[in-house]
Design goal:
Layout: H1 4-14, E1 18-19, E2 27-36, E3 40-41, E4 44-45, E5 52-61, E6 65-73, E7 82-93, E8 99-108, E9 124-134, E10 142-150, E11 160-171, E12 175-186, H2 189-192, E13 196-207, E14 210-221, H3 223-227, E15 236-244
Antiparallel strand pairs: 1-2, 2-5, 2-15, 3-4, 5-6, 6-7, 7-8, 8-9, 9-10, 10-11, 11-12, 12-13, 13-14, 14-15
């Protein structure tokens, strides 16, 4: 499972699009691939604290419409070993400089045995929307808000809504600093688990064609109760290197 809307926008923002057929073509294709020391989704590891190789392909139109697919290895302790996402939406910029994006995303876990998802289908759909704005001045602060609604969350445990609040800063030396706060609201906590909140802070830098990122993910309220069993902690330090073309 991806971090959804804002993670998706981050991945798309890293892409260097390549025109199709001609320089004035309204359609562009792009691709991305990366190594991540852990795959964190909404505050929880999707790879049992292990590494992940992730990548995707995107097609966008000058009107703002886009479609794409993205994949990663996963480890839930059962037969699920890959996640493939399909998404599409439309985005743009308002005259006042506010950026916006709306779309839908389908999470698919192929090859899962019937015995593993007999209690509820792993596959599910998210409907997402978000807005962002970049201020002028020192460090060019960027603000973002995203919301994602799931009619029936992973395992068919009922409706869920996920909210994200983001702050990005440009630092000296072409470094970028990013903060995110996320809140997961589960309508049926008896089935889905407790609602919870988490946060992350990270530093990234582009070096040639590569983007290097170091981020720390930590619990704010009840993340451990939702994601982790036993004495383990949901906190994680994640290093990644990615590229796009």
């Amino acid at each position: 499972m991806k971090k959804l809307y804002l993670k998706l926008l981050t991945c798309l923002g890293l892409l260097v699009s390549t025109p199709v057929l001609a320089e004035d073509s309204p359609i562009e294709f792009s691709a991305n691939v990366g190594y991540f020391s852990d795959y964190i989704y909404r505050g929880g590891s999707q790879t049992a604290d292990g590494a992940a190789i992730q990548g995707g392909f995107d097609m966008s139109h000058e009107s703002g419409f886009y479609i794409g697919t993205w994949a990663s290895n996963v480890d839930f302790g059962n037969s699920a070993n890959i996640e493939i996402d399909f998404y599409g939406g439309v985005g743009g910029d308002l005259p006042n400089g506010v950026s916006w994006d709306v779309g839908a995303l389908y999470y698919w876990y192929p090859g899962v045995k019937d015995s593993d998802d007999s209690g509820g289908d792993f596959d599910f759909v998210d409907i997402y929307a978000g807005v962002g704005y970049t201020l002028e001045g020192a460090m060019a602060p960027s603000l973002g808000f995203g919301i994602a609604y799931t009619p029936d969350y992973f395992g068919e445990v009922g409706d869920a809504t996920y909210y994200t609040f983001d702050l990005g800063l440009s630092l000296p030396g072409d470094f970028s600093l990013a903060f995110q706060f996320g809140y997961q609201n589960n309508d049926d906590e008896a089935r889905a688990g407790t609602s919870y909140s988490h946060a992350s802070v990270g530093v990234s830098k582009d070096v040639g064609i590569f983007t290097f990122d170091a981020s720390y993910y930590f619990d704010v309220s009840d993340t451990k109760e939702f994601w982790v069993r036993g004495e383990d902690s949901p906190d994680a330090f994640v290093f990644s290197v990615s590229t796009s073309f």
